[in-house]
Amino acid sequence: MEKIDLNKLLQGRQIKDTDELNQILQAEMQRLNDAPRPEFFGVTPNQMRFLLYDPFAEGSPFGFRDFDPAVLDSCPFFVLAEDMLRQTVLSTNPFKLTVSTASLPVKTVKTLYEHLTLKDDWIEKGINHLYKETDCDQIHICKIVLEQAGIVRKQKGKWHLTKKGQKLSQPSQRAVLFREIFHAFTLKYNWAYLDAYDHPQAGQMAFAFSLSMLAHFGGTERPMVYYAKKYLEAYPMLVEEIPLVHWDNPERHLVRCFITRFFSRFAEWWGLAELAGPMDIFNEESCLVRKGKLLGEVFQVADMEG
User: Fold this and answer.
1) Could you tell me which of 106, 78, 107 has the C-alpha nearest to residue 272?
2) According to the model, what pLDDT value does residue 247 have?
3) Residue 25 confidence (pLDDT)
4) Integer Cα distance of 48 and 81 in angstroms
5) 144-187 per-position pLDDT tens digit
């Protein structure tokens, strides 16, 4: 970030008192905060604060558009969430979970997987076998997120549809249900839950900035590593926070972390990105991606330059 050059700022000025000095400094700080930054693709520091800390707040350059709920049919994770509710609490409320782990019953898991629009590569290749909820990441995480969104409540080994869930399960509330589940996925669910990468927030932090990059540059296929490196240029402190004792190349470690968390387990799941080839986390340059149609239909994003 650009720093204030006091000598240059005060050159030729006759400062009467500290109040006048503070006014000059505040005005200069405001100017810098409203100035587009090249490392942010023209996003200003004030806009970046929204993208980092409160992306859905009033005044944020990111947010939801008014959209036709029918477009949500192309959102794999949301379609799964709707199906999970139908197969459980919308058919039997409360819905009985397994006795040992309070998980979804095997029969329910298999039915949900059969309906998945985005299949699990490891299951499809026979590396993993579908026996329980945790064998499919999408199904397991969807269950967690529905609880975090307050749509269902787990109590005494059963799933209960909450009053909020009852209201939002109405067909007329489909867009609101989507927004609530998306909020929970991005702001409550911990994206680091499924991996062992050394940074707890990389990828999830400033997801709205990353989606803005994807919306702006994703009209043509690009390597995922392109977005990962631009992300690290915007947030170089992430590289400094990786312990060298574990990784001799912290940047490459974070590139893989970003690709896994942001693309593999977020943007693709939500239909916001389309992979243009097979995913190979150990060959980052070969992983190509373009923006999904749903990104522009559902979200307004920060304007960018470049």
Assistant:
1) 78
2) 59
3) 58
4) 31
5) 999 999 999 999 999 999 999 999 999 999 999 999 999 999 99
What is the 3 state secondary structure string of 48-107? Answer: HHHHHHCCCCCCCCCEECCCCHHHHHHCHHHHHHHHHHHHCCCCCCCEECCCCCCCCCHH
Question: E strand or H helix at 290, and its extent?
Answer: strand 288-291
Q: Per-residue pLDDT tens for 244-292?
A: 655 568 898 899 999 999 999 999 999 999 998 767 666 767 789 999 9
Question: Three-state DSSP class for 274?
Answer: strand
Residue 14 pLDDT grade (very low, low, confident, very high; cuts 50, 70, 90): low
Yes or no: say if 56 and 299 are a contact pair by the CB < 8 Å rule.
no
- The answer to whether 276 and 253 are in contact (CB under 8 A) is no
- Write the CB contacts of 305 (distance below 8 Å, at least 6 apart in sequence): 36, 41, 42
The helix/strand/coil state of 131 is coil
Are the C-beta atoms of residues 284 and 218 closer than 8 Å to each other? no
Tell me how far apart the alpha carbons of residues 221 and 227 are, in angstroms, rounded to a whole number: 11
Q: Which two tokens stand for residue 246?
A: 């574990």
Residue 142 CA to residue 116 CA, distance in Å, equals 12
CA distances, 45 to each of 217, 260, 282 (Å): 21, 27, 34
Check: CB of residue 284 under 8 Å from CB of residue 256. yes
Q: What pLDDT does residue 277 have?
A: 72
